[in-house]
Design goal:
Aminopeptidase; 3 domains; seven-stranded mixed β-sheet; globular
Length: 412
């Protein structure tokens, strides 16, 4: 066997990269427009190729993202298009590409990496762990949706998809500042990932529909983005993509709207946060059903001190964390985390130390608690985190707790 070489995939090889990706994911006859979109997206990514001589046998791309973390945002490599030729499986191709990714993250100052998994058994061994979770919610609309509060009475307005980023973008930005795990959206991202025109996976759905709450000319108090699908008998389903609101009343108005659309029997909302107010607003929980809970964004802490110092904290703490990291040995070690008052909140100073550890955890468990999704004490009870100092897990939990659970709305 020839030695594999890992290098940047040039733009001249993008079509070869797409062919490899379609081969691995069992896709055929990808139409021109979706292929053009994939080409454009891949061109905007950092691209790592595994080459066997001149043959491209592996592909890993990474979006240069800004991910919201508690109280801030950090650069993040958004991993996507991961593909290994079936002829080169079990030869360490993926491991080699991931090692190259870590080198590039360090060079680019990206302390975090994230992805959506196609197979959950693969990425834990590379240090990734679910850091946000979501619900799928279904609402039967054969009767009016009963709510426990009065909906916002301001008018509802239909917004053209091409105008939507300008109209609802500020509200999305405000919402991501309140929740960790969300991607910053520029014009490219709105066009290629949110309101993409050529989506071969959803070709039976209507074009995007966007409705806002608020007076004309004023910033909206909320918005809902959805698509619809009708069956052979003309009965429809609303596929709710996003719903954001700056108040419970505005959220109630939008939920009332989507559940009152004519000819619709069901609203299916994929990817709602676990603390969605809808679950409290609804007066009849038999009408609003949670049909699925699933891990959403998988996170990898690539630079432990930069990640810990780059987020805000919620309470003072003094802890020594011993982090294990088989994939990035330079990342492993003991870190003193000193969380102190800074302005209106708390910030951490992080430094290497030889002092005894209060907690020992793998980089996977660090990712699980980093955005505020999982309480450290839960991982101690599961045997995944070792608590050497009684109460250390609870102290870390108080210091890292967030007002809202992290939630991810953008797949990539």
């Amino acid at each position: 066997m020839t030695a594999l070489e890992y290098r940047t995939i040039p733009e001249a090889h993008l079509e070869r990269a797409l062919d490899l990706h379609y081969l691995v994911f069992l896709q055929k006859d990808v139409e021109d427009e979706p292929r053009k979109l994939h080409h454009e997206i891949l061109a905007h990514c950092e691209r790592i190729g595994a080459y066997d001589g001149d043959e491209l046998v592996g592909l890993l791309a990474a979006h240069p993202l800004k991910l919201s973390v508690p109280g801030s945002e950090l650069p993040c490599a958004g991993v996507t298009f991961v593909s290994v030729a079936p002829t080169h499986r079990r030869r360490g191709v993926l491991s080699g590409m991931v090692d190259e990714l870590w080198r590039r993250c360090a060079a680019a100052g990206q302390p975090l990496a994230a992805l959506w998994v196609s197979e959950t058994g693969i990425y834990g061994r590379f240090g990734f762990e679910p850091a946000t979770r979501s619900y799928t919610v279904e609402i039967d609309t054969d009767r009016p949706l009963e709510l426990r509060i009065e909906p916002d009475a301001r008018p509802l307005r239909l917004v053209a998809a091409e105008d939507a980023p300008t109209v609802i973008g500020p509200l999305h930005s405000a919402a991501r500042s309140e929740r960790a795990g969300r991607v910053a959206r520029d014009d490219f991202w709105w066009r290629t990932h949110v309101f993409r025109k050529d989506d071969e996976e959803n070709d039976e759905l209507s074009p995007p529909r966007v409705v806002t709450v608020g007076e004309k000319g004023a910033e909206p108090a909320g918005y809902v983005y959805y698509r619809t699908m009708s069956d052979s008998e003309g009965r429809g389903t609303v596929h709710l993509q996003e719903l954001e609101a700056d108040s419970p009343a505005a959220a109630a108005a939008l939920w009332r709207y989507v559940t009152s659309i004519d000819l619709v029997d069901k609203v299916r909302a994929w990817g709602r946060p676990l603390d969605d107010p809808l679950l409290r607003l609804s007066a009849d929980r038999d009408q609003v059903r949670i049909t699925q809970e699933f891990p959403a964004l998988w996170l990898r802490v690539v630079d432990v001190p930069a990640a810990l110092a780059g987020r805000a904290w919620s309470a003072p703490a003094e802890l020594v964390l011993e982090v294990t990291d088989a994939g990035l040995p330079a990342n492993a070690g003991r870190y003193r985390v000193s969380v102190e008052r800074a302005g209106d909140g708390f910030a951490a100073r992080v430094s290497r130390t030889g002092d005894a550890a209060d907690l020992t955890l793998d980089v996977r468990e660090l990712a699980a608690v980093y955005l505020g999704d999982i309480e450290p004490a839960e991982l101690v009870r599961a045997g995944l985190v070792a608590e050497h100092t009684p109460g250390a897990a609870e102290l870390l939990g108080r210091a890292s707790r967030t007002g809202l659970l992290p939630h991810t709305t953008d797949e990539f």
